[in-house]
Write a structure and sequence with these properties.
This protein is of the alpha/beta class and 313 residues long. The protein has helices at residues 75-81, 107-120, 133-144, 165-174, 177-181, 185-193, 204-213, 219-235, 270-280, 296-299, 301-312, and strands at 2-3, 41-43, 49-54, 60-64, 86-90, 126-131, 149-155, 163-164, 249-254, 284-289.
Length: 313
């Protein structure tokens, strides 16, 4: 039996050998105080959901972040897309400024939380975009609520690889609360750099944010969310359900994505994965972005935003 495995945004096994700034010497930063570049709002209760809401337009795009990140990872794309559309970027429960607790943190749970917010904000016929793990969640949402979507955008998305069950079991054993908490600053930087074709200092804010979060009062609960999210992606595969997606779908991937396919367990070519996926989805379009890795919306925000705008119009 095979199981689905998503490439991990932050490989939480400690890595060493990369020198840089010493953010460990700075004061801790609480999740509620993280600077996303945009103000956030909060809706609902148990769990409450934080979100960015920018721009106006006839169409609404709802953005879902990947594993171990938050709504702020869309900041560069929000700047472009909000010129033409209403753009909502959410913090999934357990992440960022949203409520953290011992919630189920399954893929279905996350999809239901998106729907709770959609109902609360009275959004209808919107475009749903998900990055990495957020893509797998978006697939799940599209299968359950196709009537609410105008289009679906999968950005370097999880949900297209098939892995042996034993490989998934190995990941469950190494991705633990302890391993998340004990990743060093050098390890964080190395792991983040794997998401880029060409890492540079202007993205050091991600390293600083992650390192200073370690001593936040909610960090243990965040680490729990990450570990449960890894299990969720293994427990609810979507690679075998792509043919059931009924809404127009855009697949965007970086030509030099270092995480898809998984370089440790399933080495190969990124283009092969997504071209196969595009063939499974009945009404789909595929866009490859050159000189780009896994973090498309940060590394190539203009190219990413242009592809989104072309697809929506």
């Amino acid at each position: 039996m095979k199981k689905y495995l998503v490439p991990i945004l932050f490989l939480v096994i400690s890595l060493t050998g990369c020198s840089g700034y010493l953010y460990t010497s700075l004061p801790p930063i609480e999740f509620k105080d993280i600077d996303y570049g945009y103000p956030t709002k909060t809706a609902l209760e148990n769990p409450s959901i934080a979100y960015i809401d920018e721009g106006k337009g006839e169409k609404t795009i709802l953005l879902v972040h990947g594993l171990a990140s938050n709504a702020g990872f869309w900041r560069y794309s929000i700047a472009e897309l909000s010129k033409k559309y209403r753009v909502i970027a959410i913090d999934l429960p357990g992440y960022g400024k949203s409520q953290k607790d011992y919630y189920p943190y399954t893929i279905s749970f996350f999809a239901e939380q998106i729907n709770r917010l959609v109902v609360e904000l009275k959004i209808d016929n919107f475009v749903l975009a998900g990055h990495s793990m957020g893509g797998q969640i978006a697939i799940k949402y599209s299968l359950k609520y196709p009537e609410k979507l105008e289009k679906l955008i999968l950005v370097a998305s999880a949900g297209f690889e098939e892995f042996e069950r034993g490989e998934g079991d190995w990941l469950r054993s190494v991705v633990t609360v302890s391993s998340v908490k004990n990743t060093t600053e050098d390890g964080v930087r190395r792991n983040l750099a794997m998401n880029f074709f060409n890492w540079c200092d202007k993205w050091e804010w991600m390293v600083e944010e992650r390192v200073r979060m370690i001593n936040a009062k909610d960090f243990d609960m965040f680490a729990y969310t990450v570990t449960r999210s890894v299990n969720a992606m293994l427990d609810e595969p979507t690679f075998d359900k792509l043919s059931k997606i009924s809404v127009p779908t855009l697949l965007i991937y970086g030509k030099y994505d270092g995480l898809i396919p998984n370089p440790y367990l399933n080495p190969g070519f990124t283009s092969d994965i997504f071209e196969w996926g595009a063939k499974q989805i009945p009404n789909s379009k595929i866009v490859e972005i050159d000189n780009c890795g896994h973090m498309i919306q940060i590394e190539k925000p203009i190219e990413f935003s242009n592809a989104v705008k072309d697809f929506i119009k």
